[in-house]
Amino acid sequence: MTAGEVTEPVQNGAAGIDSPAARRGPLTMEATSLYKDFKLSRTAVLSAVRDVSFNLYRGAVVGLVGESGSGKSTVAKLLAGQERLTAGEVRLNGQPVVLDNRRNFRQYKSEVQLVFQDPFSSLNPVHTVRYHLERPVKLHQRKRSKADVTPELRALMEQVHLTPADQFLAKYPHELSGGQRQRVSFARALAAQPSVLLADEPVSMLDVSIRLEMLNLLDDLRDRFQLALLYITHDIASARYFADEVLVMYAGQIVERGPAEELTQVPAHPYTQLLVSSAPDPDNIGSILRSGSKKTARNIDTTPRVTGACPFNPRCPFVQDRCRSEDPPLMRISSSRAAACWRLDVAAPQLLNQSKGEVAHEGLGGPLT
Amino acid sequence: MTTTAAPGTQANTSQTSTGQSGAPRWRGGDNEPILEISDFSVVYRTGRGDVRAVDHVNLSLHAGEVVGLAGESGSGKSTLAYGSCRLLRPPALITGGRVVYRGRRLGTAVDILSRRPDELASLRWREIAIVFQSAMNALNPVLNVRDQILDVIEAHLQVSKDEAMQRLESLLDFVSIPRQRMKSYPHELSGGMRQRVMIAMAMATDPEIVIMDEPTTALDVVVQRDILAQIVELKERLSFAVLFITHDLSLLLELADRVAVMYAGKLVEIASAEEIHHEPAHPYTKGLLNSFPSLRGPRRELAGIPGTPPDLRNLPPGCPFLPRCMYGTAACHDIDMSLAKVATSADPEHVTACPFVLPGTPLPLRPAQGNGADAGAPQTEATGAQ
């Protein structure tokens, strides 16, 4: 595979697809063929993110779904400016992002905020809630006097439903429940008045009964402040409910993207199919988990990845010779969907038949050029 | 306030098995549960009063059965499981109840709570093994997989070196860990592999009961499914009973034979997984079922459960779920939380703690939506109603 072939479909990875998120609001952030390599030793390099392109739109949620180690958190860190790109470009409101000095960085931070997964370790245990919120308000909103800051803090607390505000402002993180802590994290991110919010597994550490409430809160905040939201999760079911567009990541690459409902109901890529079929399903009567059923468990592959092959090929039920020798680019399935798989004709025949009329003139299942 | 349904529940247990997907749920003709927890209470002594983590709980587990224990964090599910094996340290204090273990190898019933500590040692792991939630913390970081498992085998079984080695190898095969990974240390293994090692260790002494405390919570869905399928397969082969603790009810519905739902230290509903799924009785169970987004079927309107669990230090009398309950009335302050049979249920063992709400009870007409995100509102709403 030559270098030219790698970059060409990537260039169009985001541009060639109509994101359903675009209907919600104007384009805010563009990530174009992001690459991130980590040096493990003098010779070994881990390509954590390869060829990732997508757009974020104001007031819309893009879900980034994948297993741990798939590179989804690295994408968030790249967008937040916490990791340096190996290659690629991030644009904010049409301008390329340059973070060459502290001033630029701070300005960028007030536009792009990150919420972390673990509310137990993302808050400093020796400081009160007030301290956590006061700093971003002073830094990003340039309010200095106490008289200016305090009403702002109260407003923030009310936005995340931590009332009475004064009582909660005086508390330390250990005095709060997990859900309340995560509300403080949200408030802290909002304190900078950002246009982009990167939420890295914001609810996965919380109880199931509280998750929904937190997602509703996040959705409410998105709507109220017209945030462009990147929702990173391993729970594809929550992405179905919460996101406009879903990107499925595997081994550092986006292997499938499309409107949330379509993608989760009729997944195209074999990995997405595996993800969907693995989700717990109470209605699944013949489940492999029920007593008396036969074993059909798959063995998880742990062999190191070979470059120049489909990363999913060792686990794929549809694997062919081509999958072992050539890495598939994202290929268009419909105007808003794409998947990186050579075997889509076998993996998702119904989708290709459906789209035959739509993209016939462009060449069925061809790379996005 | 004592729970009364337990004895009746246990007498009937064998009848329920027939209703369920045809699979034999426990072997042998004995109807007696292998583990019987009755009227069990645990408190945590703190400077600001006792935290009543487990309050008069009755639960039984039969051989070969998977019982799921569901509830949010702080509901006391882990305390119940560890407490029944006397694995809790002060400030935890068992304040009452009985835990009877009837192992098939032992031949006699053993009252776990009255045993001397040295007698307990022979029960632990040999009879009741535990798979802990965080495999990274539960494994010894300076021992490799082989030494880790051999240590268990040598501590609890009288076997020769060769036999121990053989056992180790077959255990690794059981959980599909390649033998060349035997010399790996915990940090060299993936999360799924570590959890498999934990399961292999739990199986090492061929226990009768395996308690699993959120064994897959930290894992991805694909790995989770893989491991759960493996657990079920091992259970079929070795016929141990499983007490599976998790906050993920959707998982339990697929995995467990029977599901017990816990709230604020009390069991609020017990029924077969099928019944919990289709005919939940208790408002809390209904709320839990309405909390997780599903992948299949039409998009449902999700309500969740607004509010937060109560402070277990000073629980008001009556139903602890009242402040968050959609159905709450003034009468809820006076009910005792004993479990009573759900007469309309297909499962004769289906019990619920709520005397007012039954599977068919329609939702009360209330502006339930809208203030769902406000943690403070339901509290005032409920008190205002009285």
Biggest interface found: A-B, 54 and 60 residues
The N- and C-terminal alpha carbons of chain A lie at a distance of 17 Å
Strands in their spatial order, largest beta sheet of chain B: 6-7-8-3-9-10-12-11
Helix and strand run of chain B: HEEEHEEHEHHHHEHEHEEHHEEH
* Count of helix runs of chain A: 14
Estimate what percentage of residues of chain B fall within beta strands.
15-25%
How does the overall form of chain A come out from the CA principal axes?
A: globular
Which sequence of strands runs across the widest sheet of chain A?
Answer: 6-7-8-3-9-10-12-11
In whole angstroms, how far apart are the ends of chain B?
23 Å
Structural class designation of chain B: alpha/beta
Percent helix of chain A, as a range, is 25-40%
C-alpha Rg of chain B (nearest Å): 21 Å
State mean pLDDT of chain B (0 to 100 scale).
80
**Are there runs of chain B of 5+ residues with pLDDT below 50, and where?**
1-29, 367-386
- Over the alpha carbons, how many angstroms does the gyration radius of chain A reach? 22 Å
